[in-house]
Amino acid sequence: MTRFLLIRHAAIEASGKSLAGRRAGVHPTEHGRGQARALAERFTGASIAAVYSSPLERAVDTAAPIATLLGLPVVTREDFLEIEFGQWTGRTFDDLDTDPGFGRFNTMRSCAPVPGGEFMLQAQTRMVLGLEALRAAHPGQSVVVVGHGDLIRAALAHYAGVPLDLMRRFTVDLASVSIVELEECAVRIVTTNDTGRERFY
């Protein structure tokens, strides 16, 4: 069984204000860097085989303190990239709240299009296939994957057998940890949205 620790990146300036999407050069704020350091401390003494991350800076910066503590490299994988938000990238949530298309996207994630972007189903598929590839590469090991809120929610929805349209019922806070254990024909969701202080062993 492969144990995945799915981590959402730490706080950025846009958090709760605008849709950062795949914009380059978006790093954690000072508060976010503190979140990443505190999160890394929880991995003291943990047996982790590898640390993977979305290629976006905010995810890599969150993964880096964990990898440094464990003496491992951060390996980036495109499977774990943020959803491509196309024309919505960079817009504030106040502005997006007036966009009927964004409203449809948040109620019908299974089929609502993103203008100039990708479907949520496409993003979910690449996230799950990425995790399944790592499951095959790391049998019986624990693996850290740092990524983005919607992708983690989509993965949790898949493994819980929950429709994409209900994925927003999963809370995935900044710098939170959700743990999923996978075998070829078995799934165990251990915890979701862990923002506590206990160490991972």
Plain-language structure description:
The chain has helices at residues 30-41, 57-70, 93-96, 100-107, 120-137, 149-160, and strands at 2-8, 50-53, 74-76, 142-147, 177-183, 186-194. The longest helix has 18 residues, at 120-137. The protein has 201 residues and is α/β, with parallel strands linked by helices. It has a single domain, classed as 3-Layer(aba) Sandwich (Rossmann fold). It contains six helices and six strands, in the order E-H-E-H-E-H-H-H-E-H-E-E. The chain is globular and about 50 Å long. Strand 5 (177-183) and strand 6 (186-194) form a beta hairpin. It has a six-stranded mixed beta sheet with strand order 3-2-4-1-5-6, with helices on both faces.
Compact description:
This protein has 6 helices and 6 strands. The chain is α/β, with parallel strands linked by helices and 201 residues long. It has a single domain (2-194), classed as Rossmann fold (3-Layer(aba) Sandwich), CATH 3.40.50.
The residue fraction in helices comes out at: 25-40%
Please tell me the total number of domains.
1
Shape: globular
Helices, by number, come to: 6
Low-pLDDT stretches are none
- How many extended strands? 6
CATH architecture: 3-Layer(aba) Sandwich
Which labels suit this protein?
6-stranded mixed sheet, Rossmann fold, globular, 201 residues
Helix and strand topology:
Blueprint: E1 2-8, H1 30-41, E2 50-53, H2 57-70, E3 74-76, H3 93-96, H4 100-107, H5 120-137, E4 142-147, H6 149-160, E5 177-183, E6 186-194
Parallel strand pairs: 1-4, 2-3, 2-4
Antiparallel strand pairs: 1-5, 5-6
